[in-house]
Amino acid sequence: MAIFHWLVIQGGVPVKEVLSYRRCLRPGSDDKCGWCGIHVESIDHLFLHCSWSHHIWSALFNWWNVSWIIPSSMLEFSSDWINGMGIKAANFWSLIGPVTIWAIWLARNELVFNGVYSCWAATVSRIKLKVFNGSLTRKSVRVINFICGAFNLGV
Ligand SMILES: [Zn+2]
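A: This is the predicted complex of the input protein with zinc ion.
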């Protein structure tokens, strides 16, 4: 997921705009976003600006009680969150950001290759589950142990 995140920032993910630029799509092929059908499927549109993706980011930021403004690009988005938004946002980005980007890409591929439309709310649930499962192997075990210890609960 970290490598994929890096590819997104570098503009190396084969969205329709990139494929068209590389002449991998036939001239006149549909280069529109599969979710909205209005805008060209660029990296920034797919992962940030499409209403489908925007719902996901908004739900996740609300989950962490973090306010945000839609950035202009994935590069700006990543650098802002990594460098200057405080420890809460840094934790958000290190845990949830790469998982979310990967989940958006998988959902996009399901739509493009299999015609399966994923509900954004279901995708948010999958992201939360993945983050929870991943974080259990790191910090959350200590938090759960602390909570259980504070309330004298056995684990
Ligand atoms: Zn769209």
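The CA atoms of residues 107 and 118 lie 6 Å apart. The pocket of zinc ion is lined by residues 33, 35-36, 39, 45, 50 (CB under 6 Å).
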